[in-house]
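note to self: dont lose this again. the chain is below, predicted strucutre after it. 228 aa total, dont forget to put it in the shared folder this time
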Amino acid sequence: MLKDPFKLEKLAAQTWCRPGETLLFRIGPRWGHIAFDIGGRRGAPHEHGGRIPLESATVPEWPLPTEAVAAGHYHGDEWVHDPSIWVWAHAPNPTAVAVGCADGLAAGTADAWLVLSNHRLAVVMSSSTAKTAEQGGEPQSGGWLSRAKSIAKDAQALVQSDAESLLTLWEAPSTVIHHFDALPMGREVEPAWFGKIAFQDGSMVLIRMDSKVGAESVVTAGNGLFTR
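---
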């Protein structure tokens, strides 16, 4: 499992970034479940359902979400107070960008990292933990589902190499991002800080940060992305 953020940055520079591409932000590895509100259907944990052809072999030992959050029986941002939730994905429909991002994070389990460069937003993991996912059917043509299949096909060739590298589980161009910021959430005196990635299609992903200081790194990355 790739846990060291500095090693992640080094691998990104060596094996993942394209010419002229630099990392602006990274968070990981993933340490909790993904809650979802997709097309009015809510719950946790989110599963990728075979839509990502490559996944991590790691099986995390995380506590399950509370019954209320698992069933989607909560009001507003009450889900924030369930410590097992790391990400919350909201989307008007299953083809939205946030769902693709959530699928990538789900496939990567405890090995998934979310990274932002000046060119793209992506979910990556180390090649040493990858395996091929069982497929229940062919992905739809077009959009991020087809890109995920193409990415995973290329990644499987890299898995055969002895050299450590980063594999992309999902990616989208940075132009899909409408807003990249941080915000305090919850109903306690001390708020829980989340990174907010809002997409042009009206979907969004919220990621739990370890502190307000961590949240400030999201703001810095957002400033770097939109002022380039």
